[in-house]
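S1.2 Input.
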Amino acid sequence: MSERSVLTLPDGVTLCAETWGPRDAKVTVVLLHGWCLSRRTWQHQITALTRATDPPRVIAFDARGHGRSGATRLGSATLGQLGDDLAEVLRQLAPEGPVVLAGHSMGGMTIMEYAHRHPGEFARRVAGLLFVSTTAEGTAHTMYGLPPRLAALMRAGETIGAGLLARSGAWRPHRALVPALRLPLRWLLFGDDYEDAALRLTLRTVGGTTLRSIGGFRNSIGEQQRIDTLARLGDVPAAVLVGDRDRLTPPPCAEGIAEALPGTELTVFPGAGHMLILERHAEVSAALAGIVGRVAAAKRRVTRARKPARVRDKAA
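S1.3 Output.
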């Protein structure tokens, strides 16, 4: 069973969060979804983690302007604000113990912003990282699977369109057009092999995102540069996953992250697209469980190492 809660952020925006697992778990996993999506896209990983023999605590929440969370003002539709929101979620829902952060697409970029804007907190709290279909270099490598000239035209059109949508308000008139978006979104977001239920879920979440959020976050996502931030994180257990048919954050994006983070394991999935957490959910779940296991084992070693000192203190 899960527990839902509504968090109120310092600027008054509300976030819809959901938690699973014991409060005294050795590790807390926080799942961050992508642009125009919601926490529901992590459903397979949530199921896998909660069914583990020694389950972690799991937290998933809808970013501002997405899912069931409150609408965002246009000026707050930035990755930097999402990084601050993540810091607040941790303070309210996971104030103690080691944390594993897992981010898909915009969620991975949110993790990088948290590391950049709250380096002290990040160093104290974060014990493991999973980056899925994301980038630390904005749209530098985004070619949409097209030749360079066509990609440049598409990027320019997307930027102009995003500006118009950003000023269209916190409403969702495109929800009625979702069936017509099926083919273009399937091409943009999915690879060769996927379940129809995954596409339906993706279409519903896109349809449920406000126009302001669809357009408002685009500039921040396109401009982010956080390779230097990653390079300063040190030796954190981490994995980077990407599909070789990802048209939004292609393999060079994942390679840049892996090169910046020492000891990071990079996995490229043949035939998979951008929605890797749905397309290759078992493999993503296994990678996440592996990081959680490493963090839990490290905590056990630290606990054992401290026990003799406590015994000596009592004897004295």
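S1.4 Remarks. The mean pLDDT is 91.
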